[in-house]
UniProtKB/TrEMBL annotation:
Keywords: Chaperone, Cytoplasm, Nickel insertion. It is found in: Cytoplasm. Required for maturation of urease via the functional incorporation of the urease nickel metallocenter. Its main location: cytoplasm. This is Urease accessory protein UreD. UreD, UreF and UreG form a complex that acts as a GTP-hydrolysis-dependent molecular chaperone, activating the urease apoprotein by helping to assemble the nickel containing metallocenter of UreC. The UreE protein probably delivers the nickel. It comes from Blautia celeris. Belongs to the UreD family. InterPro entries: UreD. The gene is ureD. Pfam families: UreD.
């Protein structure tokens, strides 16, 4: 993986620092061998590890990213790159809820790059993130889809903090930029910048009294109005959640759900994807 390709945002010009003395990197690449999808390249540095992949019920290759760290610490800099080869189907998840720990003066940063070839499928579904009190986190996700046959699902769940400890939106900031290109054309851009000291996160238009927010993006799956009606029915008949579904100008779909339990939102996302 070329280091220069990961410095476009300016995040990763310095390769030293952080809990592990250098930038933490992960690279995964898939390809077809005969009729079977395999990982043909796997590279990682501490704290990342990758569990032995296994086949799912629908022919997808399930990959779980492991971490030897208790969570994201001050000064951590992470770079992840996923290449999804032609004809392969991947489901990528993480080991446990992502704890973003308290920070004194600095922040933590992560840059994820995803490249998908034609006739590929990726369901990227990391575990929910929990920003601790005084944490500060910058996250960038860049996705490049070769064409409309490149199917991509992105699931992201962010909590308000450690509610059991009385922490609700006590973090310094949480910045997340997600951009998706198809055939070199930008089709989706979500620039989330939560700063509780500036924004009232509890009010209308934000979390509205809820504790968790799930964001679901579905590209290339040809979802239609009938599917959207099913999703709205699911949301309306599920207790203690609020949400909505909308279509992008490209025809792709996005769903947002507010709730109070991460596991409930995970199950809802799975149900919506399969609707």
């Amino acid at each position: 993986m070329a280091a220069a390709s990961l410095t476009a945002t300016g995040f990763y010009e310095n390769r030293s620092g952080g809990s592990f003395g250098r930038r933490s990197e992960l690279y995964l690449s898939s390809c077809m061998r005969g009729e079977k999808a395999v990982l043909d390249e796997v590279h990682f540095t501490a704290p990342f590890k990758v569990m032995e992949p296994f086949d799912g019920e629908k022919g997808e290759l399930k990959v779980m990213i492991l971490s030897a760290s208790p969570g994201i610490m001050e000064g951590d800099v992470q770079a992840q790159h996923f290449h999804v080869g032609r004809g392969t189907k991947l489901e990528v998840s993480s080991q446990a809820f992502e704890k973003i720990h308290k920070m004194k003066d600095g922040c933590a940063r992560r840059h994820i790059r995803i490249c998908q070839e034609a006739d590929s499928f990726l369901y990227y579904m990391p575990q929910p993130a929990i920003p601790f009190k005084n944490s500060a986190f910058d996250n960038i996700v860049e996705v490049k889809l070769q064409n409309k046959t490149s199917q991509f699902i992105f699931q992201d769940i962010l909590s308000c903090g450690r509610t059991a400890y009385g922490e609700r939106f006590d973090y310094q900031y949480y910045h997340s930029l997600v951009q998706v290109w198809r055939e070199d054309r930008l089709i989706y851009r979500d620039n989330t910048r939560y700063a509780p000291d500036i924004l009232c996160m509890e009010e209308t238009g934000m979390y509205e009294g809820y504790t968790h927010l799930a964001s679901l993006l579905l590209c290339g799956l040809q979802k239609d109005n009938e599917w959207a009606d099913k999703v709205r029915t699911i949301l309306e008949t599920t207790k203690d959640v609020e949400g909505g579904v909308s279509f992008l100008a490209s025809g792709d779909a996005t769903v947002r759900i507010l709730g109070r339990q991460a596991q409930q939102l995970q199950e809802l996302c799975k149900l919506i994807v399969g609707a």
